[in-house]
Amino acid sequence: MDDYKGKAILITGASTGIGAGVARAFGARGATVAVHYNSSEDAAEAVVKDIKASGGDAFAVQGDLRTSAQCAKVVGEAVARMGRIDVLVNNAGALVQRQPIAELTDAMLDDILDLNVRSMMMCTKYAVSHMAPGSSIINLTSIAASNGGGPGAAMYAGSKAFVTTATKGLAKELVGKGIRVNAVSPGVITTPFHDKFSTPEQLETMRKTIPMARLGTVDECVGAFLYLASEQAASYVTGQVIEVNGGQYMP
Questions:
Q1: Model confidence pTM above 0.90
Q2: Contacts within 8 Å (CB) and 24+ apart, 30-33
Q3: Residue ranges of domains in the chain, CATH in brackets
Q4: What positions carry a catalytic annotation?
Protein backbone atom coordinates (compact mmCIF):
# COMPACT_ATOMS: atom_id res chain seq x y z
CA MET A 1 0.00 0.00 0.00
CA ASP A 2 1.76 3.15 -1.20
CA ASP A 3 -1.10 5.47 -2.13
CA TYR A 4 -0.88 7.85 0.83
CA LYS A 5 1.68 10.27 -0.58
CA GLY A 6 0.13 13.70 -1.09
CA LYS A 7 -3.17 12.68 0.52
CA ALA A 8 -4.95 15.30 2.64
CA ILE A 9 -5.93 13.68 5.94
CA LEU A 10 -7.83 15.13 8.92
CA ILE A 11 -7.60 13.17 12.16
CA THR A 12 -9.64 14.33 15.13
CA GLY A 13 -8.28 13.71 18.61
CA ALA A 14 -4.81 13.21 17.17
CA SER A 15 -2.61 14.62 19.93
CA THR A 16 -2.28 11.40 21.95
CA GLY A 17 -3.08 7.70 21.91
CA ILE A 18 -4.41 5.94 18.83
CA GLY A 19 -5.04 9.21 16.98
CA ALA A 20 -1.43 10.30 17.40
CA GLY A 21 -0.14 6.91 16.27
CA VAL A 22 -2.33 6.96 13.17
CA ALA A 23 -1.30 10.54 12.37
CA ARG A 24 2.39 9.64 12.57
CA ALA A 25 1.85 6.56 10.38
CA PHE A 26 0.10 8.50 7.61
CA GLY A 27 2.66 11.29 7.81
CA ALA A 28 5.58 8.87 7.54
CA ARG A 29 4.05 7.65 4.28
CA GLY A 30 3.99 11.09 2.72
CA ALA A 31 0.53 12.38 3.60
CA THR A 32 -0.35 15.87 4.75
CA VAL A 33 -2.04 15.53 8.12
CA ALA A 34 -4.27 17.97 10.00
CA VAL A 35 -3.63 17.04 13.64
CA HIS A 36 -6.69 18.06 15.65
CA TYR A 37 -6.54 18.65 19.38
CA ASN A 38 -8.69 20.30 22.02
CA SER A 39 -6.51 21.09 25.05
CA SER A 40 -3.26 19.15 24.45
CA GLU A 41 -1.49 21.72 22.29
CA ASP A 42 2.05 20.69 23.21
CA ALA A 43 1.32 17.03 22.46
CA ALA A 44 -0.27 17.94 19.11
CA GLU A 45 2.73 20.05 18.13
CA ALA A 46 5.00 17.13 19.03
CA VAL A 47 3.03 14.92 16.62
CA VAL A 48 3.35 17.60 13.92
CA LYS A 49 7.11 17.77 14.52
CA ASP A 50 7.45 13.99 14.27
CA ILE A 51 5.50 13.88 11.01
CA LYS A 52 7.65 16.58 9.42
CA ALA A 53 10.79 14.79 10.56
CA SER A 54 9.57 11.59 8.90
CA GLY A 55 9.06 13.26 5.52
CA GLY A 56 5.39 14.16 5.65
CA ASP A 57 3.69 17.48 6.23
CA ALA A 58 1.39 18.39 9.11
CA PHE A 59 -0.18 21.19 11.06
CA ALA A 60 -2.23 21.39 14.25
CA VAL A 61 -5.82 22.62 14.42
CA GLN A 62 -7.65 23.29 17.68
CA GLY A 63 -11.32 22.88 18.48
CA ASP A 64 -13.74 21.56 21.10
CA LEU A 65 -15.75 19.13 18.99
CA ARG A 66 -18.55 18.91 21.52
CA THR A 67 -20.24 21.71 19.55
CA SER A 68 -21.30 21.69 15.91
CA ALA A 69 -19.80 25.14 15.36
CA GLN A 70 -16.38 23.90 16.43
CA CYS A 71 -16.70 20.86 14.16
CA ALA A 72 -17.34 23.25 11.27
CA LYS A 73 -14.36 25.38 12.34
CA VAL A 74 -11.93 22.45 12.48
CA VAL A 75 -13.01 21.06 9.12
CA GLY A 76 -12.91 24.54 7.61
CA GLU A 77 -9.38 25.23 8.83
CA ALA A 78 -8.19 21.86 7.55
CA VAL A 79 -9.69 22.48 4.12
CA ALA A 80 -8.28 26.01 4.03
CA ARG A 81 -4.78 24.57 4.48
CA MET A 82 -5.10 21.41 2.36
CA GLY A 83 -7.75 22.34 -0.21
CA ARG A 84 -9.71 19.13 0.30
CA ILE A 85 -10.04 16.07 2.53
CA ASP A 86 -9.11 12.65 1.16
CA VAL A 87 -9.37 10.79 4.46
CA LEU A 88 -11.33 11.79 7.55
CA VAL A 89 -10.54 9.86 10.72
CA ASN A 90 -13.18 10.51 13.39
CA ASN A 91 -11.08 9.52 16.37
CA ALA A 92 -12.09 12.14 18.97
CA GLY A 93 -14.07 10.84 21.91
CA ALA A 94 -13.87 9.87 25.57
CA LEU A 95 -15.46 7.85 28.31
CA VAL A 96 -15.60 11.12 30.35
CA GLN A 97 -15.84 9.21 33.64
CA ARG A 98 -17.13 5.92 34.97
CA GLN A 99 -20.60 6.63 36.32
CA PRO A 100 -23.19 4.18 37.66
CA ILE A 101 -26.60 4.74 36.08
CA ALA A 102 -28.07 5.82 39.45
CA GLU A 103 -25.61 8.74 39.47
CA LEU A 104 -25.92 9.75 35.81
CA THR A 105 -26.76 13.42 35.32
CA ASP A 106 -28.09 15.32 32.32
CA ALA A 107 -24.77 17.15 32.04
CA MET A 108 -22.82 13.89 31.97
CA LEU A 109 -25.17 12.39 29.41
CA ASP A 110 -24.81 15.44 27.17
CA ASP A 111 -21.02 15.41 27.51
CA ILE A 112 -20.69 11.76 26.49
CA LEU A 113 -23.05 12.10 23.54
CA ASP A 114 -21.47 15.33 22.35
CA LEU A 115 -17.93 13.93 22.49
CA ASN A 116 -18.63 10.57 20.91
CA VAL A 117 -21.69 11.10 18.71
CA ARG A 118 -22.00 14.76 17.78
CA SER A 119 -18.29 15.12 16.94
CA MET A 120 -18.36 12.17 14.55
CA MET A 121 -21.60 13.08 12.81
CA MET A 122 -20.95 16.80 12.46
CA CYS A 123 -17.33 16.50 11.35
CA THR A 124 -18.58 14.05 8.73
CA LYS A 125 -21.34 16.45 7.71
CA TYR A 126 -18.94 19.32 7.14
CA ALA A 127 -16.23 17.20 5.52
CA VAL A 128 -18.19 15.34 2.84
CA SER A 129 -18.64 18.37 0.58
CA HIS A 130 -14.83 18.58 0.39
CA MET A 131 -14.33 14.88 -0.41
CA ALA A 132 -14.09 13.48 -3.93
CA PRO A 133 -14.82 9.95 -5.16
CA GLY A 134 -12.16 7.63 -3.79
CA SER A 135 -12.14 9.36 -0.40
CA SER A 136 -12.56 7.51 2.86
CA ILE A 137 -14.04 8.07 6.31
CA ILE A 138 -12.83 5.94 9.22
CA ASN A 139 -14.66 6.13 12.54
CA LEU A 140 -13.30 4.98 15.88
CA THR A 141 -15.73 2.75 17.73
CA SER A 142 -14.85 0.37 20.57
CA ILE A 143 -15.20 -3.18 21.79
CA ALA A 144 -17.52 -1.60 24.38
CA ALA A 145 -20.08 -1.14 21.59
CA SER A 146 -20.38 -4.93 21.44
CA ASN A 147 -19.86 -6.06 25.04
CA GLY A 148 -21.34 -3.12 26.96
CA GLY A 149 -18.04 -1.88 28.40
CA GLY A 150 -16.70 -2.09 31.92
CA PRO A 151 -18.16 -0.84 35.22
CA GLY A 152 -19.86 2.55 34.94
CA ALA A 153 -19.37 2.74 31.18
CA ALA A 154 -22.85 1.93 29.86
CA MET A 155 -23.38 5.36 28.33
CA TYR A 156 -19.95 5.31 26.69
CA ALA A 157 -20.69 1.84 25.31
CA GLY A 158 -24.03 3.04 23.98
CA SER A 159 -22.46 6.05 22.30
CA LYS A 160 -19.91 3.81 20.58
CA ALA A 161 -22.70 1.46 19.49
CA PHE A 162 -24.22 4.50 17.81
CA VAL A 163 -20.91 5.06 15.99
CA THR A 164 -20.86 1.44 14.81
CA THR A 165 -24.42 1.56 13.49
CA ALA A 166 -24.08 5.03 11.97
CA THR A 167 -20.96 3.86 10.14
CA LYS A 168 -23.08 1.33 8.27
CA GLY A 169 -25.82 3.85 7.53
CA LEU A 170 -23.34 6.45 6.29
CA ALA A 171 -21.62 3.85 4.13
CA LYS A 172 -24.93 3.28 2.31
CA GLU A 173 -25.69 6.99 2.10
CA LEU A 174 -22.29 8.10 0.78
CA VAL A 175 -21.53 5.23 -1.58
CA GLY A 176 -23.14 7.22 -4.40
CA LYS A 177 -20.51 9.94 -3.87
CA GLY A 178 -17.72 7.38 -4.07
CA ILE A 179 -16.89 7.81 -0.38
CA ARG A 180 -16.19 4.67 1.65
CA VAL A 181 -17.11 4.65 5.37
CA ASN A 182 -15.70 2.09 7.79
CA ALA A 183 -14.74 1.81 11.45
CA VAL A 184 -11.99 0.43 13.64
CA SER A 185 -12.98 -1.12 16.96
CA PRO A 186 -10.06 -1.44 19.37
CA GLY A 187 -10.13 -3.64 22.44
CA VAL A 188 -8.06 -2.84 25.52
CA ILE A 189 -5.17 -0.75 24.21
CA THR A 190 -2.44 0.80 26.37
CA THR A 191 -3.13 4.50 25.87
CA PRO A 192 -3.75 7.55 28.10
CA PHE A 193 -7.45 6.57 27.90
CA HIS A 194 -6.92 3.69 30.29
CA ASP A 195 -4.35 5.59 32.34
CA LYS A 196 -7.20 8.00 33.11
CA PHE A 197 -10.25 5.74 33.30
CA SER A 198 -9.08 2.27 34.41
CA THR A 199 -7.30 1.07 37.53
CA PRO A 200 -4.49 -1.50 37.34
CA GLU A 201 -6.90 -4.02 38.88
CA GLN A 202 -9.52 -3.34 36.19
CA LEU A 203 -6.91 -3.70 33.45
CA GLU A 204 -5.75 -7.00 34.87
CA THR A 205 -9.34 -8.27 34.96
CA MET A 206 -9.72 -7.28 31.30
CA ARG A 207 -6.40 -8.88 30.37
CA LYS A 208 -7.58 -12.23 31.70
CA THR A 209 -10.49 -12.19 29.20
CA ILE A 210 -8.17 -11.76 26.18
CA PRO A 211 -7.07 -14.97 24.42
CA MET A 212 -3.70 -13.39 23.59
CA ALA A 213 -3.33 -12.78 27.35
CA ARG A 214 -2.01 -9.24 26.98
CA LEU A 215 -3.15 -5.71 26.26
CA GLY A 216 -2.75 -4.21 22.80
CA THR A 217 -0.58 -1.31 21.69
CA VAL A 218 -1.25 1.75 19.56
CA ASP A 219 1.06 0.43 16.84
CA GLU A 220 -1.07 -2.70 16.61
CA CYS A 221 -4.11 -0.56 15.77
CA VAL A 222 -2.45 1.53 13.06
CA GLY A 223 -2.51 -1.11 10.32
CA ALA A 224 -6.31 -1.25 10.28
CA PHE A 225 -6.50 2.48 9.55
CA LEU A 226 -3.85 2.28 6.84
CA TYR A 227 -5.71 -0.58 5.20
CA LEU A 228 -9.12 1.09 5.25
CA ALA A 229 -7.72 4.38 3.92
CA SER A 230 -6.03 2.72 0.94
CA GLU A 231 -7.87 2.64 -2.37
CA GLN A 232 -5.32 0.08 -3.58
CA ALA A 233 -6.11 -2.35 -0.78
CA ALA A 234 -9.68 -1.56 0.28
CA SER A 235 -11.55 -0.04 -2.66
CA TYR A 236 -14.35 -2.64 -2.28
CA VAL A 237 -14.60 -2.32 1.51
CA THR A 238 -17.31 -0.13 3.03
CA GLY A 239 -19.67 -0.36 5.99
CA GLN A 240 -17.27 -2.65 7.84
CA VAL A 241 -15.91 -2.70 11.39
CA ILE A 242 -12.42 -4.10 11.94
CA GLU A 243 -11.96 -5.55 15.42
CA VAL A 244 -8.47 -5.13 16.94
CA ASN A 245 -8.70 -6.82 20.32
CA GLY A 246 -6.45 -9.87 20.67
CA GLY A 247 -9.46 -12.18 20.33
CA GLN A 248 -11.38 -10.70 23.28
CA TYR A 249 -14.46 -10.27 21.09
CA MET A 250 -15.12 -12.38 18.00
CA PRO A 251 -18.28 -11.40 16.07
A1: yes
A2: 30/4, 30/5, 30/6, 30/55, 30/56, 31/4, 31/5, 31/6, 31/7, 31/56, 31/57, 31/87, 32/6, 32/7, 32/8, 32/56, 32/57, 32/58, 32/82, 33/9, 33/57, 33/58
A3: 8-242 (3.40.50.720)
A4: 156
